[in-house]
């Protein structure tokens, strides 16, 4: 079953803080670079990913979101970790507040020509080190907690 769970939830609770489970995917190319997307909501860079929809598995969510946001198909996913806690609170530019629980996977792309789609303004292969100052707070928190820098 595919619905827009977050939209439905926000219709009920407005911008009040909610706990949301989502995914982020560290997609590495053959050169070891990581795929980043520049988000349309805050103009900052993040890993592709998104929120779990009712009835979806985390793996299905990860694959769907990577394709929807940057046009890349991924198959195998390896669990890197789960990120949660007080550092994972985020207020979106529209005022919505969320406590993120993010399941972070790693994968290699099937196709390597990313294209900005949906919620992305731009897609780029790079490294955490070179993107660090321009990362969206949830991605920066996940990268810190998982030891990327």
Molecular structure report:
With 149 residues, the chain is an alpha+beta fold. Helix content is 23%, strand content 32%. The protein has 4 helices and 8 strands. The chain has helices spanning 5-13, 58-70, 128-131, 137-145, and strands at 18-27, 34-39, 45-46, 49-51, 78-83, 89-91, 97-107, 120-126. The strands form 2 sheets. Strands 1, 4, 5, 6 and 7 form a 5-stranded mixed beta sheet that branches. Strand 2 and strand 3 form a beta hairpin. The longest helix has 13 residues, at 58-70. It is globular. The N and C termini lie far apart (38 Å). The model has no long low-confidence stretch (mean pLDDT 93).
Question: How is the topology of this model organized?
Answer:
Elements lengths: L4 H9 L4 E10 L6 E6 L5 E2 L2 E3 L6 H13 L7 E6 L5 E3 L5 E11 L12 E7 L1 H4 L5 H9 L4
Parallel strand pairs: 1-7
Antiparallel strand pairs: 1-4, 2-3, 2-8, 5-7, 6-7
Major sheet summary line: 5 strands, mixed
Question: For the residues shown, what is the average pLDDT?
Answer: 93
Assign the structural class, choosing from mainly alpha, mainly beta, alpha/beta, alpha+beta, or little secondary structure. Answer: alpha+beta
Number of helices: 4
- Could you name the ranges where pLDDT drops below 50 across 5 or more consecutive residues? none
Strand content: 25-35%
> Span between N and C termini?
38 Å
The shape is globular
Rg over CA atoms: 14 Å
Q: From the structure provided, what is the oligomeric state, counting identical versus distinct chains?
A: single chain
Give the % helix: 10-25%
Run of helices and strands: HEEEEHEEEEHH
Q: How many distinct beta strands? A: 8
């Amino acid at each position: 079953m595919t619905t827009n769970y977050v939209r439905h939830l926000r219709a009920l609770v407005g911008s009040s803080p909610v706990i949301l489970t989502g995914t982020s995917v560290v997609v590495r190319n053959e050169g070891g670079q990581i795929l980043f997307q520049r988000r349309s909501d805050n103009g900052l860079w993040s890993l592709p990913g998104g929120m779990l929809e009712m009835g979806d598995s985390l793996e299905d969510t990860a694959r769907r979101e990577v394709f929807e946001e940057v046009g890349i198909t991924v198959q195998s996913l390896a669990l890197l970790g789960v990120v949660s806690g007080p550092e994972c609170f985020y207020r979106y530019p529209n005022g919505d507040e969320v406590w993120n629980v993010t399941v972070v996977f790693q994968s290699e792309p099937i196709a390597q020509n990313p294209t900005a789609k949906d919620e992305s303004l731009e897609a780029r292969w790079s490294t955490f080190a070179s993107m660090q100052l321009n990362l969206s707070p949830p991605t920066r928190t996940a990268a810190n907690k998982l030891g990327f820098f």
